[in-house]
Design goal:
117 residues, alpha+beta, 6-stranded antiparallel β-barrel
């Protein structure tokens, strides 16, 4: 039990440090988004920059009781590299959620091409 709690705590500390580093180095940008509901993992957020046709797909990494924070949002703030990962937040900047790119290339491409649900 202690080992499980310690590993969970270490993951939280690592994630907080990673988010703090991104927030220090990159500005917030507002993106129109579409959010796909969670299936096996967290929700998938499609960031659509207004200046191009490229769509960036991010998976929300958090505990499932926080997934509702991005559901139903039309706009989210993102801090980081859209193609790699960063910090997501609803307009206003709190609460913060970590988002990472989907690592499986064919799944990422399929979600990038998918129409808004």
């Amino acid at each position: 039990m202690f080992l499980t709690t310690a590993l969970f705590g270490l993951c939280l500390v690592f994630n907080a440090a990673r988010m703090r580093r991104r927030l220090r180095r990159h500005p917030w940008r507002s993106y129109p988004v579409s959010v796909r509901p969670p299936r096996l993992a967290g929700p998938v957020v499609r960031l659509r920059p207004s200046d191009g046709d490229k769509v960036f797909v991010q998976a929300v990494v958090s505990l499932n009781f926080r997934w509702h924070l991005v559901q139903g949002s039309a706009t989210l703030w993102f801090c980081g590299f859209p193609g790699r990962g960063g910090v997501l937040a609803p307009p206003g900047g709190a609460p913060l959620l970590w988002a990472r790119r989907i690592r499986i290339p064919y799944a990422r491409r399929r979600l990038e091409r998918a129409h808004d649900a």
